[in-house]
Design a protein that fits this description.
Layout: H1 24-37, H2 40-51, E1 55-58, E2 65-68, E3 71-78, E4 81-83, E5 86-88, H3 95-113, H4 117-122, H5 126-143
Parallel strand pairs: 1-3
Antiparallel strand pairs: 2-3, 4-5
The structure holds zinc ion.
Zinc ion (ZN) binds near residues 104, 108 and 133.
Length: about 150
């Protein structure tokens, strides 16, 4: 049973994909994770991104998910994370773990919104990156609900 409903037909493109070109199952996983495991503020942002097509899937190598400076409002989630030789989609992780990743990445979206173009694209020092990672982890921790 699905408590929230899959993405409505009216949201789908010609190929039957949900916003962000997610499958029904991926879309539903994100919706479930956000509704059940994020604070109100973090949930609203993630759902806005989901319905706005700014949460997408991809093959990201070893990254669970990422936000690129070139499209700083798009969260990409890895569909084929290789773990112990199994190809594993992060969309299929347990909802709380997915929620933590989405909140972490959404914090990067918030961080990038405050940077100028060159900082976004060229990045900063490794110390700067460490601060951004800590901030994103702290945000995810604070906004995660059991
Ligand atoms: Zn990060």
């Amino acid at each position: 049973m699905d408590p929230f409903g899959l993405c409505a037909d009216s949201l789908k493109d010609k190929k039957g994909l949900c916003p962000g070109k997610l499958t029904d199952k991926e879309f539903d996983s994100v919706e479930h994770a956000a509704r059940e495991h994020l604070s109100l503020v973090a949930r609203k942002r993630v759902l806005d991104a989901l319905y706005g097509g700014r949460i997408r899937g991809g093959n990201l190598g070893g990254d669970e998910a990422h936000v690129s400076g070139l499209s700083p409002d798009v969260i990409r989630v890895n569909r084929s994370l290789s773990v112990f030789d199994q190809r594993l989609s992060v969309f299929n992780w347990d909802p709380q773990s997915l929620a933590r990743i989405l909140a972490h990445e959404d914090r990067h979206v918030q961080q990038l919104a405050n940077f100028g173009f060159f900082t976004r694209v060229l990045g900063g020092s490794s110390g700067f990156h460490a601060v951004l990672q800590q901030d994103a982890d702290a945000y995810a921790q604070v906004n995660l609900q059991p």
